[in-house]
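Appendix C: a fully annotated inverse folding record. The material below is reproduced so that readers can follow the format used throughout the book. The structure is listed first as tokens, followed by the designed sequence.
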């Protein structure tokens, strides 16, 4: 089974605390193939387990478990507990976060290797974990020691680069932020509100510059050129096209994050699912 067959072409991304069992059931009914839980889910994985208990087939993925705040041995034990009850439906997204939020974040590449060593020793399969790899060195680790990559705030040209680097069989599952709003001014205001924190974080601005954006583009509050490329806005057809753009460049699966985060995301999910022709039940 290919990754696109397993996960479906499109899933949703939302902070773990904002995903209820009711929301998960409706996302599954709409035909999305996976729910990615952001906001550093804890290594006990109790919330992902509850979502799996409430649904039937959808994959639940962590997007991402932060290695600095989640114990690797506990994560492995949680994986095996859930795998015994819901075989094949949990995917571990793992990452190192950003240095501004984690004082102990030093030598993240070495730290990731040690974390993966523990998962290996605990029997967590390589093909059931994926790394958030923004830079080339972490991408190389993801190619060697995981199923692939789950990048955040990247554009389709970077998806093509990741596919080329990882080869044809690895999982490439980028996040794509979207605003369901046909008024450019208000949509950009929502997008800038979302991007404000990320434009203060070096790992994301570095990734944006790798994607072809200039210093002026990434300087807060971000140019329209950057804002429109990173956070796609418009009607449902435009948001569906944003997902397809990554798929056309080699992604197996795209997870859509709807902003503003405090709004009910279901109207946007329903509209985009219809525009994509997802197999609702």
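Designed amino acids, in order:
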């Amino acid at each position: 089974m290919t990754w696109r067959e397993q996960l479906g072409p499109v899933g949703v991304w939302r902070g773990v605390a904002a995903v209820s069992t009711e929301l998960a059931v409706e996302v599954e009914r709409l035909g999305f193939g996976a729910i990615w839980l952001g906001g550093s889910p804890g290594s006990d994985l109790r919330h992902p387990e509850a979502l799996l208990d409430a649904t039937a087939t959808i994959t639940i993925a962590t997007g991402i478990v932060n290695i600095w705040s989640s114990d690797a041995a506990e994560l492995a034990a949680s994986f095996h507990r859930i795998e015994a009850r819901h075989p094949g439906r949990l995917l571990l997204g793992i990452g190192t976060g950003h240095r501004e939020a984690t004082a102990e974040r030093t030598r993240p590449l070495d730290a990731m290797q040690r974390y993966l060593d523990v998962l290996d020793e605990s029997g967590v399969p390589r093909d059931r974990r994926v790394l958030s790899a923004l830079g080339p060195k972490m991408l190389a680790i993801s190619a060697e020691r995981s199923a692939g990559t789950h990048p955040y705030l990247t554009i389709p040209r970077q998806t093509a680069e990741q596919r080329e680097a990882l080869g044809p069989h690895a999982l490439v599952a980028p996040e794509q932020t979207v605003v369901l709003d046909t008024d450019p001014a208000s949509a950009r205001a929502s997008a800038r509100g979302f991007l404000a924190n990320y434009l203060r974080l070096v790992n994301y601005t570095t990734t944006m510059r790798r994607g072809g954006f200039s210093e002026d583009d990434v300087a807060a509050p971000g140019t329209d050129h950057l804002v429109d490329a990173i956070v796609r806005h418009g009607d449902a057809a435009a948001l569906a096209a944003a997902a397809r753009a990554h798929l056309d460049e080699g992604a197996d699966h795209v997870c859509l994050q709807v902003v503003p985060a405090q709004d009910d995301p279901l109207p946007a999910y329903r509209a985009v699912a219809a525009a994509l022709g997802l197999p609702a039940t």
